[in-house]
Predict the 3D structure of the following.
Amino acid sequence: MKFEMPYELVLGWRYTRAGRATRRNGFISFISGVSMLGIGLGVAALVIVLSVMNGFQKEVRDRMLSVVSHIEIVSADGSALEGLKHSLQQVHANPDVIGAAPFIAAQALLARGEDMKGVLVRGIDPALEPSVVDLSMGFARRTASLPGVEALVPGQFGVVLGMDLARQLGLRLGDPVTLIAPNGQVTPAGVLPRLKQMQVVGLFNSGHYEYDSALVMLHIEDAGKIFRLEGPTGIRLKIKDLHEARNVAKALAPQLAPGMAIRDWTQQNRTWFAAVQVEKRMMFIILTLIVAVAAFNLVSTLVMSVTDKRADIAILRTLGASPHSIMGIFMVQGAMVGVIGTLGGLLLGLLVAFNIDVIVPALEALFHASFLPKDIYLISRMPSDPQMSDILPVAIISLLLAFVATLYPSWHASQVNPAEALRYE
């Protein structure tokens, strides 16, 4: 049995790819090509922008989690936690928790000579810290000869600094530095801040400027002595699935003792993640409008095509073609422009998105510019993470817009009167 394609598809495809015999037909074909190109470029721009924003969010999140734990249980007033052992037993009883480590968090000033900078001090247990954060993310970026948190020894008052913080203060390994604690000591001259001479014993580079320029880590016992705390101020947790952090935190909250608060990694950076989501939605809307403008160029293309093909329409009607068939022919013509433009845009967008780590450095070298200063954008390279959840809606919306744009011209073609069309032929 021989399969025959509907003549509406055959004619619609012929009208899409043909039509250069006359100057008028050539102009119509040019307008059709421009519409196709516009749809393709709009779709490609959408795919590239959404992929870059996904990659940016993923890169910052991964680097953030090299210094920030999935969940933190902290003392509401900043004092030492009471019932630490009981709290650790409770969190370990949760099957989703795979690591827990106590810590001390405080703010202080770090001084070297006349240079001084406010820092976030974190007292950690070097033996337990790798169980709650992926230190390989932060410390794999340092030179192999540079020590990390394993260099923190209780009683020696050593500190591990972010590379950017060390660079700002002009510090290197082995240099002395002064830590100024805000909780002062009472003297006859009044309340004076507590100063402690420390030594730089390690450096890290998480790739997240906010932490690399402000975080100072020291041994939890040394931090307790400096800030006069009898124990940790919080517990850091690592769970099996970081995306379930909010649900796990909600499950643990009722088990906490009074005076304790719990927060997950999304709450610690809620403003930043919310801003990225809003920006992503706005970029999607704006770039979709570009696709819509290109798609609705099909209206003028098909109107001109209908005018040019009036005689063909009339002949088809006299041969028995129904108005619905005539409408179908021109809908196929417009839809093919939308399909080719959309597929071309998807291919171009994915090609750029998957190779953006090569394209952007080449452009930076060509123009001698840095597109992502890390002190502004947190990261210094352009990431990309194409996701099907973004690409599929882009393709569907582009095809729908192209289809809608074909409705009126196709309906207009179906209303052509054969006698009127053939009168002057």
